Amino acid sequence: MKGSKRCMALILTIILTISVSIGAVFAEPNEIDYSQWDTQAAYPPDIINTKYMQSVKYLIDKKILTGFEDGTFRPNEPINRAQIAVAVAKATNRISDLEAMANKNTFADLSGYNWAKGHINALVDAGIIKGRSDTTFAPGENITYAELVTILVRMNPSAASTLEERGNWPNNYIDYVTTYNYLGDVNVKDWNAPAPRGDAAKLIYRFIPKN
User: Is the Cβ–Cβ distance between 43 and 60 less than 8 Å?
Assistant: First the structure.
């Protein structure tokens, strides 16, 4: 009799263990602990858990900005005018006719920048970007904070009506972005200084519509 009870208890223990195991395997989706999943592996390691992460992640997902071949983003390095033109053209969806745009000779200094020429010309046609002169774009030169916010404000045609009353360039654009808090936590100490890649990403992210 005692042997039968021990056998029955053992069987019940086995059944209970199996039930718990099956329940764990077939748990409802909202019960799964995703906190241990590595969802950051696809992004540059030098922006993980930094103030740039949200902006850079979004822009990479949307193929607006990319990192370097070694997998880094280098948020503290400057970004040049050609790279910004490509990013803004993608952000404003002005990439449908790049081949035709690349055949235009708007500027004389775009030799070696065929990868950006169509984007630059598309933005010039749209009135979003300008050269450093009528014939030069200076594609390899670092973009300044003042130039960057000017380009980003020009993405919004409705802003033009308020710029004239705000003074001359670049003060009118600077006044606009500070008045409407487009800078967020980007702290600009010198508007003529080169804008680093991390700050450029944050500003582009703040200006473009999200979908």
Answer: yes
